[in-house]
Structure formats: structure tokens, C-alpha cells
Amino acid sequence: MKRNTGVVLLAEQALHETGAHPENSRRLPPVIERLRGSPEWPQLHVLEPKAAEFTDLLRVHSEPQVELVRDSVRNAPTWIDGDTPVGPSSLEVALKAAGAGMTAVDAVATGEADGPASLFALIRPPGHHATTDRAMGFCLFNNAAVAARYARDRYGLERVAILDWDVHHGNGTQDIFWSDPATLFISLHQWPLYPGSGWLDEVGAGDGRGFTVNLPMPPGSGDREHLEAMDRIVEPLIEAYRPELLIVSAGQDGHAADQLASQMITAEGYMLLAERSAVMADRLGIGLVALHEGGYNLETLPQLDHSVLAGLGGYEVDLEEPFSLSGAGSAAWKERLEEILGVQRQFWDL
Ligand SMILES: [Zn+2]
After folding, report:
1. Residues, beta carbon < 5 Å, ion ligand 1
2. In this predicted structure, what is the pLDDT of residue 324?
3. Which of 111, 72, 63 is CA-nearest to residue 245?
4. Does the residue 349 lie in any domain?
5. Cβ 29 vs Cβ 298: under 8 Å
6. Is residue 231 part of a domain?
7. Ligand 1 centre distance from Cα of residue 96 (Å)
8. Could you read off the pLDDT of 20-70 as tens digits, one per residue?
């Protein structure tokens, strides 16, 4: 293993009961089973999450938002919106999911020689659609935003970068940090797709202008397009921003076999996205916290999450799927990339 890494496991995840929903309690157990059976398991750091307090949530959410989730859970089972079910124990699990990012921040922030350089929190419910005022899109609280603001308050960090490679736009994270230059938010997502936001001209406002970066990727985009986005935009921007912590909203629902989108990323593509991110964090001398977001194909998710962890740790993993730079791809990407560069050159030296 080239880089110390590990996982934060949410033992209570099955208590967030959503029934026959794509975001369900059957997603994570096979992932964990696969990791436990892998040769690297004994070398991984394995942590349990603390629960977030309401004050941690209120750094990024309004009081009515937190109260709505709490009241919905009291009336469970019910739905917060047409996509977002809650059960009687969902609040308890959501507080642990939000706390998992904080636990991971604590572990990577200490910078101890034998500590983890990165951690992958295997959590649900996901978080990146939850806005300041709204739980939506399977998300109750914004786990990545809670972790970022916790890191700033607890460790005095002045700059945190959040890279969101979930196939859906991280509208919630964008909303929370829209006017805030202390968080650089970069989202790679399929366009058009749920929730409908994330066009390339959405760049933040006020002091935060230029610190929200959207890369709307045409449908059919695969490894080549996503790696080119990393090369041409994501990595140069993060290097220039010089964050003190990198948080990744790691949703693997851009995989070719995922039923919720039409992107063509392979398992090795996810390994490479994670590896690029971890190598960059290493170069910057900062910790990396990856938080699980989407990924809905129960058969492929274990190897995708394993690929992400292998990329973070820099170790080899057997992938059942051959990596191919040819084949899948998007003819519309080249022009789109130039358009995105045109917008971003207002703010960054690219
Ligand atoms: Zn997603």
C-alpha cells in the first residue's frame, strides 16, 4: 500500500429503512463484505463514526430544515419529498452519517506518521442534494458540507476543497457554499439530469464568485472525458486554491452499469479518479476525506467502491471489467470543455 488509507463504517446503516427504493439498506453490506475479504483489509484503518450534534448540522442547515427532518422521523414512515423516504430510525443514522465525515476529518487532520492520509466513509443516507433549507434527492443532511465546516471551525482551516464526482449535480453543497470563498466546490456531473442545476455558468456569488465550479458532462461521457476534466480543470484549480483539506463526494453512479444515469465510467476509471485525487492531496500535504454518495447497481457497487479505496491507497485490485479508453465517449465533450474553460478563465489561470 503506497498511501495509508481506510474506511469509516456505519454499523447502523440498515436502520435507515427505505424499502424498495434505489437508495436502500442492501447497498453497503456487500461492499463491506468484499473489503473484509480483500488481502489489504488487515492494513486498513477501520473507524466507527461519532454522531453529529445539532450544532454541527446548524453550521450548514437552517433550523427549519433540521426540525423538518426531526418531525418527519417522528411521523415515520413517511416521505420528505417524492424521492426521499424516512423511517423511524433515520435521524439516528443520518446523524452518524454526518458525523462520519467529522470522524474522518479528525483522523486525517492530526497528520500522525502512522495515521491515515485518506479515509472513505461508507455511509448512507447520502448528502450532496441537501441544501441549506431542504432535504431532498435521497439526502437528509449534507454530510460533505458538515465535514467541511467542522474542519474549518475545529481546526481553523481557511480553505477546504470539495470535489463531487457523483453523476448528479451536488446542488445542496453548491447552495450551502454559494457565497463562500473558504470552500472551493467542484462538481462533475451528467447534464442534463436530476436535479437540473449545475450548468457551467453557475459560478457562485459575492465573495464566493469563482469558487463554485460546474462541469456539466454530456451523456455517454466515460473515463477519457472525466480524466481530461481532472487534467484540464479540476487539478489545476485545486492546486491553485491550495486547500488545507480535500473532501470528495464519491458517488459511483456514473458507472456504465448504473441504472440512474447514462455515463460510461468504468471501475478502473473510478480507481483513477481516486488515485489522482489522493496523489494530489499527497502533493499538497493535506488529508483527503471521501464520503459515499450515489451508486445504485447492487452487483457492481462493491467493486466500484473497492476501486475507489484502491485508488486512495495506491494498491492493485483485481477488476472484473477491462478498462478501455476507446469505445464509449461523447463527441459533444470537446466543445463543452472549451465552453467550461472559457467561463473558468475569468477566475483561474488555465
Ligand atoms: Zn447521484
Report:
1. 166, 168, 251, 253, 294
2. 55
3. 111
4. no
5. no
6. yes
7. 20
8. 999 999 999 999 999 999 999 999 999 999 999 999 999 999 999 999 999
List residues with catalytic annotation.
Answer: 129
pLDDT-derived band of residue 323, with 50, 70 and 90 as boundaries? Answer: low
72 CA distance to ligand 1 middle (Å):
23
Coil, helix or strand at residue 206: helix
- Helices 90-109 & 143-155 angle (0-180, nearest 10): 40
Provide φ and ψ at 179, rounded to 5°.
-110, 20
The three cell numbers of residue 205 are 456569488
- Read off the amino acid at residue 151: A
Indicate the Cα dihedral angle 101, 177, 305, 246, nearest 10°. -70
Q: What is the pLDDT of residue 113?
A: 79
Cβ partners under 8 Å of residue 86, min gap 6: 16, 69, 72, 73, 76, 77, 78, 79, 80, 140
* Global confidence as pTM: 0.97
Residue 258 lies in a domain: yes
How far away, in angstroms, is 128 Cα from ligand 1 center? 8
Give how many domains the chain has, as a whole number: 1
Ligand 1 centroid to residue 167 C-alpha, Å: 5
Cell 465525515 belongs to which residue? 101
Q: Which residues lie closer than 8 Å to 1 by C-beta, 6 or more apart?
A: 40, 43, 313, 314, 315
Distance 114 CA to ligand 1 centre (A): 33
Name the residue range of residue 240's domain: 6-344
How many angstroms is it from 253 CA to the middle of ligand 1? 6
53: Cβ contacts below 8 Å, ≥ 6 apart: 95
User: Cα dihedral sign for 146, 148, 152, 158?
Assistant: negative
Residue 109 lies in a domain: yes
Give 213-234 pLDDT, tens digit per residue.
999 999 999 999 999 999 999 9
For residue 54, the domain's CATH number is 3.40.800.20
Q: How much is the pLDDT for 328?
A: 65
CA-based nearest residue to 52, from 7, 96, 85: 96
Nearest to 248 by CA among 183, 164, 155: 164
CA of 127 to the centre of ligand 1 (A): 10
